[in-house]
Amino acid sequence: MLEAVLFDMDGVIIDTEPFFLRSENMLLKEFGVTVELAYHYRYQGTTHEYMWQTMKDEFNLPAPVNELVERANKIRNALIMQEGLQPIPGAIDLIKNLYENKIPLAIASSSPLKDIHHAVASLDIEAYFSYFVSGESVEHSKPAPDIFLDAAKNLNVDPTNCIVLEDSKNGVNAAYAANCKCIGFSNPNFPAQDLSNATVIITDLATVDADFCRNLFK
């Protein structure tokens, strides 16, 4: 029985992935490191700290992790200020449809909580969600199940009765580990990720509504 839907944010609700990729690449180039944009997809769904610690170790970056995170955030925020945040097509209609069908909603994102609140406020969708949790707030980030287990606990629902919407390999694997149903969103505008652990894979959020979600439990 469907009790709640748990949304990832970046790449599912808001189209922030290009800003992340560009800001990470721009900062690496400051240290003389050049990689393909596709390199960064391995870090989708992880926390900023994990990502930059891994890249610091791999490329022997001389700056401390907290400085790398802060500098990347400044670059990304400047890009967002210049170009503005845009929702993923179909995301807001889906959120409203689920809310109108009285299905509790939460955002469980690896992004910092302040970024989550800024994004939903910018899109005027904050009121549709009952709970927000950041990867910074749990012990282990995706692909560990902690963030989805925390969301289910705070919504007072059984994780096995939750659906997660995710677009990354790490996020889908986290949902799988939490024993949640998972709708894997394969965005046709980005390189394909391994979403094989999802219950179902879609390429268009407009194909999902409350009935679609309920039918996953039949």
Automatic annotation (TrEMBL):
Record-linked InterPro entries: HAD-like_sf (IPR036412), HAD-SF_hydro_IA (IPR006439), HAD_2 (IPR041492), HAD_sf (IPR023214), PGP-like_dom2 (IPR023198)
Coiled coil: none
Pfam families: HAD_2
Domain of life of the source: Bacteria
PANTHER family: 2-DEOXYGLUCOSE-6-PHOSPHATE PHOSPHATASE 2, PSEUDOURIDINE-5'-PHOSPHATASE
Protein name listed in UniProt: Uncharacterized protein
Species: Trichococcus palustris
